Amino acid sequence: MIQAIFFYIFAGIAVTMALMVVSAKNPMRSALALTGCLLSVACIFALQSAHLMAILQVLVYAGAIMVFILFVLMLLNLSPQELGERRVTVRRVAGAYLIGAVGTILMLRVTKHLWAPSSTLDPDFGTVKEVGTILYTKYLLPFEMVSLLLLAAIIGAVVLTRKEKGDGQ
Amino acid sequence: MTSETLVLSIILFGIGATGFVVRRNAIIVLMSVELMLNAANLAFIDFSRQHMDYTGHIYVFMIMTVAAAEAAVALAIVVQIFRARRVVNLDEINLMKG
User: Fold this and answer.
1) Complex ipTM, two decimals?
2) Chain B: residue nearest A152 by CA?
3) Full-prediction pTM beyond 0.90?
4) Which end of chain B is least crowded, N or C, by CB within 10 Å?
5) Between A48, A96, A100, which is nearest B45 by CB?
6) Where are the alpha helices (DSSP H) in chain A?
7) CB count in 10 Å sphere of residue A22
8) Which pLDDT score is estimated for A93?
């Protein structure tokens, strides 16, 4: 019961913040709203007894990625005329309607199975020990490949932002 | 509570997809992508909980890493384009349009 109340509170915060991300004119405001949205989704992860993933969500998403986005926003320091976009176009209205239609269809499919009986939960489900054991035994190879992916991303980002010699900047 | 989580995931994904289609600021488009990835994570966690299986958690872990890598490379590209042409509006980045 108390879990359901908390779920609806965090779900409301997440949806409101997500709407602010999409609708805010200033990217800084939408970045801060995205941080709030990610934090409330982390709370929902914890409610779904995915404790390790909730911690990782706070550390990786709300911590690292959002700091990175905010850093780039402040680095670019956009002026109001650089931010200006046309407000309403045909493509925007059409796109919003299309997404709304797809969302409604998906929603109808899911709500058919609403109130599915939930099975009893092992109290250890989703703890760091359980997920870590699986991650380092059964999924060891994908885990190592992820580190290669991160290495490639680091090298790619450094090479992309490097200034050419004699660029004059 | 499981189906409600799925519905929340659909709503968040829809909002993110709308932002991806509608907004033209490169960084806001990137944030919409993050929102969509996050909605997918929510669905994975929910299915994992339903089936008492850890594969969903592993997927969420992988998606988080991919999101971090994608954000790093995409923001590097945005910074480079802004340095070269002083624009972040995706409609004005049309140099490669035939």
Assistant:
1) 0.91
2) B69
3) no
4) C
5) A48
6) 2-23, 27-47, 51-56, 66-76, 80-83, 90-111, 128-137, 140-161
7) 23
8) 78
